[in-house]
Design a protein that fits this description.
Elements lengths: L9 E3 L3 H8 L2 E4 L3 E7 L6 E6 L7 H22 L4 E7 L3 H4 L2 H15 L2
Parallel strand pairs: 1-4, 4-5
Antiparallel strand pairs: 2-3, 3-5
Helix pairs in contact: 2-4
Pfam families: Ribonuclease_P
InterPro entries: Ribosomal_Su5_D2-typ_SF, Ribsml_uS5_D2-typ_fold_subgr, RNase_P, RNase_P_CS
Organism: Pseudooceanicola batsensis (strain ATCC BAA-863 / DSM 15984 / KCTC 12145 / HTCC2597) (Oceanicola batsensis)
């Protein structure tokens, strides 16, 4: 995974304005994470961002949670995300770092189905 892109069609969001635009759009909470989604109205690739506040825990816990969220997005967004959409995955206190990985993937798929309605 390079710094600017996760895969060819999956780009990592870096700018604060992109995160704020997603915060004003649709959101779906699950036990393992909160997912925000926004249709940019473009026919471009999928963009994704990750965040974990200090509520998630110390730096070790936050980094572990973000690594797990990045892997879920890498595995599932190319097949289940929609081109032209932005997604922000937000870590949940206790749950993101400790939840079984298969359950985390199921949470993300559930959130995507709800966002795309």
């Amino acid at each position: 995974m390079s710094g600017a892109q996760m895969t060819e069609s999956l780009q990592t969001m870096r700018r604060r304005a992109d995160f704020l635009a997603c915060a004003r759009a649709r959101r779906q909470g699950t036990k393992g994470m909160l997912v925000q989604g926004r249709d940019r109205g473009e026919d471009a690739g999928i963009r994704v961002g990750f965040t974990c506040s200090k509520k998630v825990g110390n730096a070790v816990a936050r980094n572990r949670a973000k690594r797990r969220l990045r892997e879920v997005a890498r595995l599932l967004l190319p097949d289940h995300g929609r081109p032209g959409w932005d997604y922000v995955l937000i870590g949940n206190r206790d749950a993101t770092a400790d939840r079984p990985f298969e359950d985390l993937k199921a949470d993300f798929l559930h959130a995507l189905r709800k966002l795309h309605r």
